[in-house]
Every structure is written in structure tokens, then in C-alpha cells.
Amino acid sequence: MYEGAVQDLIDELGRLPGIGPKSAQRIAFHILDAEPEEVQKLATALVDAKSRVRFCEICGNVAQGVQCQICADPRRMDTVICVVEESKDVVAIERTREFRGKYHVLGGAIDPIGGIGPNNLRIRELLTRLQDDTVKEVILATDPNVEGEATATYIARLLSALPIRVTRLASGLPVGGDLEFADEVTLGRAFEGRTQVGV
User: Fold this and answer.
1) Angstrom distances, CA of residue 137 to CA of 12, 79, 101, 130, 173
2) Which residues of the chain have pLDDT under 70?
């Protein structure tokens, strides 16, 4: 335990995902050792990101304006939507350069233990996007873990009555892993070998 502001800084850093107590302490002391200008740049970047970054009104991805760059890009296919849990998954898939359609970011996965149900996700917005018969395929690219599988199964059941091909990313992704940490080759192969979801 440190005094006052130092401990407050460590505590706040420790609340960030993936940052344990020792990492929080290391980061805090790095910040304290840094030049004031560097610390100010970090603080400004945090405040700017929080105040300027929004979520795309179409897909839910992070954006600077009303729409994200992908939704605003006329070269992207409107006929295929890739459903992901988080914006970081969009970045992971974009690195593969395999996918030329558009995305739909759910904002998480179904997790009853964590108190997240279908109504807490952007599933209703997905169904709205599918109303005009433009979309011919929905790729379910949720994480290959229990929550991701439950979410994919739930969405597949909802879409089973629609004249839309529903596919799931193929094997190659580790079970229990996150899309964010998959390498480009593995993720690219998973896209190439995706299979139709039978309900």
C-alpha cells in the first residue's frame, strides 16, 4: 500500500482489463517517472477518445462520425454481414484481408452468469438490418468459447426462418480463445473454411 495519489493511481489502473496488481504498480511508477509532457499527452488522448469516439449507427463499431469507415465504404459488399462480439474483433478480421463485406458488432456475448442476456446485445438491430432482403449471408464470428457459442446458436435460431445463409467460422480457432489474439493465418483459414449452421 502506498500513500494517497500513488495508491489511487495503482487502484484505477488495476481496474483495467488484463492489468493485475503488479502490472498496475509498474505502469503507475512508469507514469510517475515520465516527463510531464508525456503524461499530459496520455491524459489528453484518454479524454479525447472518451469524448470524440462514438459507435456507428449502422453496425455498432467504433467511429469518429455517425458511420464507421467500413459502413461508409461503397466498395464493401452489402450482401454479407459478419457478426462479432466487440470492435476489437473487427480489427482482427480486417487484418486477414479475407473479408470484404460489412460487420455487426453485438457489444458482447450472452453470459447468464455475468447478467448479460440477448436483450443486452445489439441483436434487435441486426434483425432490423436484415429486413430489406439485401443480405444473403450472415457469418457468425463470435468467440469460440462457451459464451460465444451460446450467442451464435441463439442468433442462428432467430435467423433460421429467414431466407439467409447462416455460417459459422470454421475450425482453426482455439476453443476457449478470443478472436483478438488469433494470428492472421489461423483466422484467414477459419474464414475460408466456414460452414453453414444447421438449426
Assistant:
1) 43, 7, 10, 10, 21
2) 171-173, 175, 185, 199
CATH number of the domain located at residue range(s) 76-196 in this protein:
3.40.1360.10
25-to-1, 39, 47, 53 alpha-carbon distances in Å: 10, 16, 22, 28
C-alpha cell at 22: 503488479
CA distance 178 to 175: 9
Q: Tell the CATH superfamily of the 4-52 domain.
A: RecR Domain 1 (1.10.8.420)
Domain regions of the chain by residue span: 4-52, 76-196
Per DSSP bridges, beta strands 195-196 and 165-168 are antiparallel
Q: Is 171 helix (H, G, I), strand (E, B) or coil?
A: strand
Give the torsion through C-alpha atoms of 107, 109, 114, 117, to 10 deg. Answer: 90
Q: What is the pLDDT of residue 115?
A: 92
Is residue 178 classed as helix, strand or coil in its secondary structure? coil
3-state secondary structure of 115: coil
pTM: 0.77
Report pLDDT for 146: 86
Using DSSP's 3-state secondary structure scheme, residue 55 falls into strand
